[in-house]
Amino acid sequence: MAMGGRARGVASKLRRISAGCEIAPHWWFRRLLTTDLRSRLAELIPGEQERLKKLKKEHGSVPLGQTTVDMAIGGMRGIKGMLWETSLLDPEEGIRFRGLSIPECQEKLPAAVSDGEPIPEGLFWLLVTGEVPSKEQAATLTKDWASRSDIPGHVYDVVNALPINAHPMTQLTAGVMALQTDSEFQKAYEKGIHKSKFWEPVYEDSMNLIARLPGLASYIYQRTYHGGKLIESNKSLDYGANFAHMLGFKEPKMYELMRLYLSIHSDHEGGNVSAHTVRLVGSALSDPYLSFAAGMNGLAGPLHGLANQEVLRWINEAVEAIGADASKEKLTKYVKDTLNSGKVVPGYGHAVLRKTDPRYTCQREFALKHLPDDPIFKMVSNLYEVVPDILLETGKVKNPWPNVDAHSGVLLQYFGLTEENYYTVLFGVSRALGVLAQLVWDRALGLPIERPKSMTMGWLENYCKKQTVTAKKK
User: Which residues lie across from 89 on neighbouring strands?
Assistant: First the structure.
């Protein structure tokens, strides 16, 4: 990914320029001086539009691989059929955001405290532009989101119309749909905006939605679990810290955890259910509110966004059954008993990854730094040493390593966010950063409506018979 490569070179180029070894072109300095994200995006779009046109013209007929019947009936798993610029998932090394690994993001992106976790503003700038932002650029984004964060009163009315026991994800989706009344894209489309300008109101909608999500999500948390108390935004805080503040947390370490959580859950290329749903619905020119709400309905599914709470429940059951300080022998037996009962060990395995999820690793490092003696964290560490070998022994598991969900719930519980049903809402707020950054580019690049070809079983059977006959004749 070329843009990610440019991002990695910012620091080294600055050193060469300051040492007098290199003269920077005018555009390079402009990139650093532009603190407004929309202005920088407007500068980037023409070049990327030409890049896509050239790619299609020169290489449009190049095949990307072979599609099999297994793929067609197995959820289209592994089919290469989508352009997604903001991140790329490699089976061996994990996710890269615009070419940067998670450790590289932690090293290069602006942080709120010395040696701290990257703030989501910096990651969003990276996702949108492919460039590592300066602290000033990230700070400008913090102020921009704060200025857009006020939520119309009717949104609270819509949420309050739901039963208090409605699932938090149901409340979130309803709230996002209520926000849709302010859609700039819908207004512009009705006025006849030219398609070359679609990205502009989509950008405004995306920025407004991202800015308002923490307020909406925190209100749902207070309403569902804490009597409806509304905690006012602290606009002097960055996005992640302010979200934690509105949830009712004051611990600086919780601010750091929220910054890390929102950053690492933001994007995981485009093929997962929530990301692909936002892209699919958006391809029909549905505005960002409609598209994101649809993605959140996908995220709410047990096979997608509910995984971390399933992990936490399983760990808590293990603690109750064998104790938090159980030996590895007892833990091994408990894991095997889980598998023998026909259940899975939640938090292990991934549809794409074939190594330990880097998002798990960075959360483990966070725990080693901030809560090394916590007994539940120690159990998670012991599971890391026990589970993979047991899963490999079954001969049925391609990836026995822990994924992001194996750790996140334990960290949230440690800092006092114990309401498991709410965890997917946190995931949703984070996922907005990636999918909406990509949705802006979808409109900027003029990507068409998605319409894959479907087939019946009868068609597949007849096709395979014909292929077998042809092969025999040869």
Answer: 95
Would you call 304 a catalytic residue per the annotation? yes
Q: Which range has highest mean pLDDT (86-95, 181-190, 294-303)? A: 181-190
What are the Cα distances from residue 77, in Å, to 8, 192, 204, 242, 401?
Answer: 31, 39, 34, 38, 20
Catalytic, out of 350, 357, 407, 442 = 350
Residue in 238, 287, 405, 442 annotated catalytic: 405
pLDDT in tens, 343-365: 888 888 776 666 888 999 999 99
Identify whether 407 is a catalytic site residue: no
For this structure, is 205 an active site residue? no
Q: pLDDT at residue 82 above 70?
A: yes
pTM, to two decimals: 0.90
Q: Which of 130, 129, 132 is nearest to 119 (CA)?
A: 132
168, 224 contact by CB (below 8 A):
yes
Annotated catalytic residue within 90, 167, 304, 374: 304
First CA to last CA across the chain, in angstroms?
42
In three-state secondary structure terms, 99 is: coil
Evaluate if residue 11 carries a pLDDT over 90.
no
